[in-house]
Amino acid sequence: MAIVIHGASELEALRRAGRVASETLAAVTARVRAGVSTSEIDAWVREDTAARGARPSQLGYRGFPAAVCTSRNHVVCHGIPSSHEVLQDGDIVNVDVTSELHGFHGDTSVTVCVGTPSKEARHVVDMARRALEVGIAAVRPGARLGDVGAAIESFVRREGCGVVRDYGGHGIGRRMHMPPHVAHHGPGGVGPRLRVGMAFTIEPMITIGEPAVEVLADGWTVVTVDGSPTAQFEHTVAVVEGGCEVLTRPP
Fold first, then answer.
1. What is the CB neighbour count within 10 angstroms for residue 49?
2. Domain range enclosing 61
3. Of 120, 123, 155, 121, the residue nearest 137 (C-alpha)
4. Is the pTM of this model over 0.90?
5. Are strands 230-232 and 205-207 parallel, antiparallel or unpaired?
């Protein structure tokens, strides 16, 4: 399918959806601490999203059973909340919120440190946060989509980290997942040229160890093969005149 170019009214709808997602994420992650179960995080996301007049986009998507992904320690993405999974001091956990408001979606995530994680875990969280900003800085009209992944991969490799190649960002608008696929690796100067009105997510998944991943038997949970910690940060962005607008900056 072709990449959708959003008009002014659609971009405004994406801004509103992005604002809701970012506000829900901020409200929920402020409550994350040791002793909280990931199913409690799911309940908070449902409650907060509804209070803002939106719905969780992830709930029921291709059968996904929760309103949020909670990916802890060596879980790369798509972690399913559970009452049996209780956060402990030293954990890191990615909380990934997607909100649908009036038919448009906003998608954003952060990795939260619970208590005092190891030096290794704190490093990968910092690298993931910085890698997202490096990717955002590469977005401007006329650039190539591959420039985003090239910038991210170059940065994390210099810092001795890996970037997961099996998953990436995606276009967003009236559907949660749309073209294009946004790789967080590979050469620059390739892929579609970025045009004003494009909207997509940038969500690099960074590892300390090898970037190889596998999917668990539940069909959703993606983990690092070597069991090393991994972190991710995500924003929804739009290509605008003169550069890039982040639609999910926290309040």
1. 27
2. 8-246
3. 155
4. yes
5. antiparallel
